[in-house]
Amino acid sequence: MIRASFFYQELAAYGINFYTGVPDSLLKNLCAYVTDHADHHIIAANEGGAMGIAAGHYLATGQIPVVYMQNSGEGNIINPLASLVDKEVYNIPVLLVIGWRGKPGVHDEPQHVKQGKVTLSLLETMGIPYSVLSKEEHEASLQIKQAVESMQQSKECYALIIEKDTFEPYQLSTVTAHPELSLSREEAIGIVASAIGPKDVIVSTTGMISRELFEYRTRNHQGHERDFLTVGSMGHASQIALGIALEKPDRRVWCFDGDGAAIMHLGGMAIVGSQAPGNYVHVVFNNGAHDSVGGQPTVGLDIDLPTIAKAAGYKQVVSVSSKEELERCLDFLRPFSSKRPEVERARHDNDGGNFSPLLLEIRVQKGNRKDLGRPTTTPIENKEALMDFLKQ
């Protein structure tokens, strides 16, 4: 393995010291080092946005920037690769650092298998030269030199592909604590899941949220047919939920989202608001971190997601940060189950109880159980069980 500090310093020797991108588990040690040491580092909303930031940096300074990502993000950069930085458009060099999940021959989760197979061929189709970074520092140094010389001469992009266990461990030290947040995400997921109606469905986003929802069902001896676990497609769970909600108006549809995923494609909120489904509840578990890929920070706790949703057309927005607040809020959402007169009066006073689309932000602690498992059903089994449930 190579040291993250070595990689960083090698690039710095060539004047490359601007980093932007979306964190990846294979790059978590490098990302942590960059977070702690780089003067110019922006964790972008999505990989395409990172390419735009990088292009702007080059236009302003003439210095080559770094854009890092998981290979799943290649799809998000194809448009700016082809229509912004390409040699036939603006001819802007960017060093791409890409984590190779799902590499053929290496066991990985199902959402990474296809992307792993096409990682290199996508680059070849786009005409981007690349090297699979060596795990030996002397050889890696020569590869970095080759990459820089290629970009300096051609003004085109170059990619360094990062395999599993390329970087030595590095512990992130720049961590913002939020001691005021007492609720864990896993506990909050259980509280919300216990409040949904028997006909309701949940679309959960990629990462820890789907894993924790799956374990909640298993722990409580419940089936998984009401949940669509979006194991890939980061940032698109809200739109999957919208598609279901519009076709099944007699069912309440819950989107279990994360702050990083919601921010990645924030425009989805505008589409939910414009469609105004009366059976849609968008729950954002906000811990201000990309928890499943090393805990790198997001801007989730620094921005006002409820106000953004309200401006986008959501009918109601709520933000809670404690178990007590969450349980009080869910009383208003339990379908025909509350026995509290004050709740029923509030429903009547608030447009007959039609609160949707509603955004419920739950501010939670960062982190998860170390022994958290993964879904034991396949994505296709999950899909078919949900479709059968929706037919009932």
Automatic annotation (TrEMBL):
Q: Which residues form the Thiamine pyrophosphate enzyme N-terminal TPP-binding domain?
A: 6-115
Q: Which UniProt key words apply to this protein?
A: Decarboxylase, Lyase, Thiamine pyrophosphate
NADP as UniProt keyword: no
Name the Pfam families on file. TPP_enzyme_C (PF02775), TPP_enzyme_N (PF02776)
Organism superkingdom: Bacteria
State which Enzyme Commission number(s) the record gives.
Answer: 4.1.1.82
Q: Which GO terms describe its biological process?
A: organic phosphonate biosynthetic process
Q: Which InterPro entries is this protein grouped with?
A: Phosphono-pyrv_decarboxylase, THDP-binding, Thiamin_PyroP_enz_TPP-bd_dom, TPP-bd_CS, TPP_dependent_decarboxylase, TPP_enzyme_TPP-bd
Q: Name one GO molecular function term.
A: thiamine pyrophosphate binding
Name the enzyme's class: lyase
The name under which this protein is listed is: Phosphonopyruvate decarboxylase
> What's the source species' lineage?
Bacteria, Pseudomonadati, Bacteroidota, Bacteroidia, Bacteroidales
